[in-house]
Design brief:
The structure is a homotrimer.
Chain A (H helix, E strand, L loop, with lengths): L1 E5 L4 H13 L4 E5 L12 H8 L5 E6 L4 H10 L5 E6 L5 H15 L5 E6 L6 H13 L2 E6 L8 H9 L4 E5 L11 E4 L10 H8 L6 H4 L7 E3 L20 H19 L20
Parallel strand pairs in A: 1-2, 1-3, 3-4, 5-6, 5-8, 6-7, 8-9
Chain lengths: 284, 284, 284
């Protein structure tokens, strides 16, 4: 029994958790949006999670506040119920990162010795922070960070790259000048809800748009990733290009969440139980 | 695995799809209202559907905009996932029509050679448009269209009747004068959300109300249908009358949706797989 | 097949019904909040329930209006579908009471010969009214009613106690003076949504707060109950105290709802079918 506690809406993440659990042979309950839950009565995350831990075997939580998943995990610990972070504010989105990694390996055949471009809102994009953090564990990645100055990655993320084995980065404002060097291009949505003003959002959202013309300068085997939903950062005429990998990410997202839920429930997937696990070389 | 993508609320339609799929042995996930989905982040229908097609085997979509189901069907086509239109704006509501047809055949024993009255908001009522379109395929129907001048059926619907084999229509303003001639009376809700102003809604909503007094002039075997929800178009004192067929429509609605989902999934219902299908005679 | 019709949000109650039904081997569908349902189109409770009764085998309803569950039960009667009241306004919340009783018996070993304190909002608290009503059936309870004068229990509840076998009550304003005499302390939330003004809510909500200091005066085996969600009526430092029983209530809530659904569906729980039922001695 999975409980999905989504304090923010997310079709993709919630439905992939729910269908994943059902495909594993389990069931799912939950809420989507605080209007449906006791949050509107002032209940704390810890109380809600401790309550739901009495009903469910595993909890997936999405929350607008950074750190909410950690609070939830501590509250559910006593009941022995694992909590999966399905995105906490601008902080992390680890299951999206698992989908990203699966897709990169599918396309590139490896998770190391890559030049990875990340483009758009690198300040508030939790998927960007999660992906950089995780690729740093594998090592030997050159990150090309493409963003306007106002939306650069936070300093703690740069510090993480500096500490990682064989990793380096460059920060640029222009996608066109670097796209030809990339193995992977990770586009991100300029998220309206993270902005302080409508004006600032409108000014910046069209800066980093990928279309067929810009894509022409990329390598024929570059993989274009995007955590979705997109607004207009990738023109729909790119969808049919074989380099477009973002709908593969969606499919992989369900599969990695199935694997993760099976793992935290100590329920080995059929045929995979005896295999040795592959672990990152650069793990610290 | 069914996904219900309901961009507009609909208890009846959504729950009948979901319980129908569960009764077929499957499962259902989805959302009800855009507040629960990534729509609020500006995602297009096509992207949402293409995403959900990675999780589900069949999709049922309800959307306030005409043509949304067609867009959805095209987006899901590549993934080989069938999309069922669960109502698109003022355009069509084909599974309601299947429920209507099942109920008419149950009551009248046939779907042709009938005098069918449709009463209320005939301009915005998508169930009316769907039902007329479909009965025209069977042929030999006389339609009695009862509405205020402001809420008449659109011209393209009248054109459809003109082209259909053995079909005819009359447009009247008064239910009392025609009720005695009807085999079927299809009442519709004057939908507040389709009106331009509150004043216009209030002025028109009470015009075409069916109560016991008015029903007295009808034939003893006339069937009263309504797609529900009703507000006050049918007085509750009509519910106990044997001519009231609208709660039968509800039950039939789940059954026809089960049959439809089984059909689009190529999953023949037990005991029905070898039967020859009955097709409309007037099919064009 | 359970349908949960929640016209008001309630994470705890809805999820415990749904997970309970799934653990019994069934399934659950429903809505949480009127924004998701046809209520927004003006449909009556009776029509909604009669519709849902065509899909589901049992219905659980939560509604902000007193008496809604009774209306629902009458509407579903014709279809032979049992309706469970999951809370109707300030009136009753009987399945919460079943959870309360299970927890009291678990802690005290009996449901009679007890001194039971109820503290906080006793006027609007439906769980309080349900619990008093039910304990009166068992008899020999002394109720200590702790509330500000503005939030005392309604007179009909006091009349109920007066009629019950061996039952008595006292009304006090101060928890500290009576806490030492209690076998059970039932804390309640001062529910913001039941108040007439924000000012009145703020003035009263902090009046009856239980913390470690106040708990020190209680017996070592007193049980602290709370229907949850809490806002600040019980300080979180009380959670680790062995007298805190409110998270046990949550777990018991799912179990009693499973038992109730099995009972109304005539589906005897495995191993319990042949046992003689225990009935309240003071039943009237």
């Amino acid at each position: 029994m999975l409980a999905t506690l989504f304090y923010e809406p997310s079709t993709r993440t919630r439905l992939s958790f729910e269908t994943g659990m059902i495909r594993l042979g389990g069931n799912a309950v939950g809420f989507a949006g605080t209007g449906q839950s006791s949050v509107s009565k002032g209940e704390s995350i810890a109380d809600t999670v401790r309550t739901v831990a009495a009903y469910a075997d595993v909890i997936a939580i999405r929350h607008p506040k950074e750190g909410a998943a950690l609070v939830a995990a501590r509250a559910a610990e006593r009941a022995g119920v694992p909590v999966i972070n399905a995105g906490d504010g601008g902080h992390m989105h680890p299951t999206q990162t698992l989908a990203d990694l699966a897709t990169i390996r599918q396309r590139c055949g490896r998770l190391t010795d890559l030049t990875v471009g990340l483009c758009g809102d690198l300040m508030f994009g939790r998927t960007v922070h999660s992906l950089i953090e995780t690729l740093c564990r594998w090592g030997n990645i050159h990150f090309v960070l493409v963003s306007p100055p106002e939306l650069r990655v936070p300093q703690y993320v740069l510090d993480r790259i500096d500490k990682a084995s064989g990793c380096s980065y460059e920060q640029v404002r222009d996608l066109a000048g670097v796209i030809g060097s990339l193995d992977v291009l990770y586009m991100t949505r300029v998220q309206k809800e993270r902005f302080f003003s409508e004006d600032e959002y409108v000014r910046l959202r069209d800066t980093y748009v990928l279309d067929r013309a810009r894509l022409a300068a990329a390598r024929p085997d570059m993989a274009v990733l995007h955590p979705l939903p997109r607004v207009n950062e990738i023109a729909t005429d790119v969808d049919a290009d074989p380099r477009a990998a973002y709908f593969d990410q969606v499919a992989n997202g369900m599969l990695v969440r199935m694997a993760l839920m099976a793992a935290v429930l100590d329920d080995p997937l059929p045929g995979y139980g005896d295999e040795k696990r592959q672990t990152p070389a650069g793990e610290q």
